[in-house]
Amino acid sequence: MGSKKSKPQPIPDFETPWRDIDWNEKEDLEAELTNIQLNHPELRFVRILLHGPVGAGKSCFINSVQSVFRGEIKTKAFEQANAKKSCTKTYKSYTITDKNAVILPFVFNDVMGLETQDEDGIHPKDIVNAMLGHIEDGYKFNPISPLSDGDPGFVREPSLEDKVHCLVSVVPASSISRMETGVINKMDNVRKEAMNLGIPHVVVMTKVDDDVCPLVNKDLTQIYRSRKIKEKMLESSHRLGPPMKCIFPVSNYHEESNMNNTKDVLILTALLQIVKSAKDYIEEQH
Ligand SMILES: Nc1nc2c(ncn2[C@@H]2O[C@H](COP(=O)(O)OP(=O)(O)OP(=O)(O)O)[C@@H](O)[C@H]2O)c(=O)[nH]1
Ligand SMILES: [Mg+2]
Predict the structure, then answer these.
(1) Cα angle 26-29-34, degrees, rounded to a multiple of 5
(2) Is the CB of 88 under 6 A from ligand 1?
(3) How many domains does the chain have?
């Protein structure tokens, strides 16, 4: 009689959340972000640069942040479903406003997505140019040749406000495992440049709602009980470099027409860490 092989049981999710999160603190997070004081005469805002693979949800994250602060769905930056090539082609700054149309003390820069092939997607040197504040708003990226001194669109003497104060890598939870080595290597080079410049680096892990974990698909508040999501965060940490405490899972507003408190809290938690890191960087530098 052959012994029956028992099927491997899936590892259960965590009994209690492994990261503390208070789903009632949306207003507190919003207030803290709205009232951030930069204490620097040359700065009205911190500049946050988003980069990552094509279709990761960079533009959607900007739109999601704007939606949270306006309390309704906004689509400032163009997004595209199933884009083969990057939908974002130009360098653009996005200010964020509150319900009274007051400009908040953080600005996002959206860039073209990274691709494995060198002739497609943003040139990694242009991400470094952006970090250094050398790229003029509205510049159309050229994947073949990065911007250099003397080219139209090159800002020779960037101000402190033109420079980037926090680098954010945006990666989808649903495809971090499948991300090509070519793209990972390019992201790694950008991270090294940021580290040389002392610029903080945070990862926003998007698409946690996209069939990654049945528990989270059903109820987003269970995100820090989900073993699968933690695995994806660990994988993001290993593949991209930053420690777990710098990885923030979010579910962007991508299909819904109503606001959702859980999404808001996750987005605001990520944003607060980004803005605080940017502020620390400015204080250390000047
Ligand atoms: N399910 C889900 N879909 C998302 C999420 N974030 C973005 N999307 C969708 O993913 C697609 C690509 O999003 P974009 O914001 O255009 O991605 P991008 O990183 O700006 O891409 P490029 O500009 O083309 O490099 C769009 O259809 C978004 O609505 C998310 O958190 N969950
Ligand atoms: Mg985009």
Answers:
(1) 120
(2) yes
(3) 2
Q: List pLDDT tens digits, range 52-77.
A: 999 999 999 999 999 999 999 998 88
Residue 4's pLDDT band (cuts 50, 70, 90): low
125 and 169 assigned to the same domain: no
β-bridge partners, 53: 114
If asked whether residues 154 and 172 sit together in one domain, one would say no
Q: Whose CA is nearest to atom 16 of ligand 1?
A: 79
Of 64, 78, 79, the residue with max ligand 1 atoms within 8 A of its CB, to mutate for a pocket test, comes to 79
Tokens read off for 41:
């005469």
Note the pLDDT tens digit of each residue in 149-161: 999 999 999 999 9
Tokens of 88: 């974002």
Band of residue 1 on the pLDDT scale cut at 50, 70, 90? very low
- Does ligand 1 lie within 6 Å of residue 83's CB atom? yes
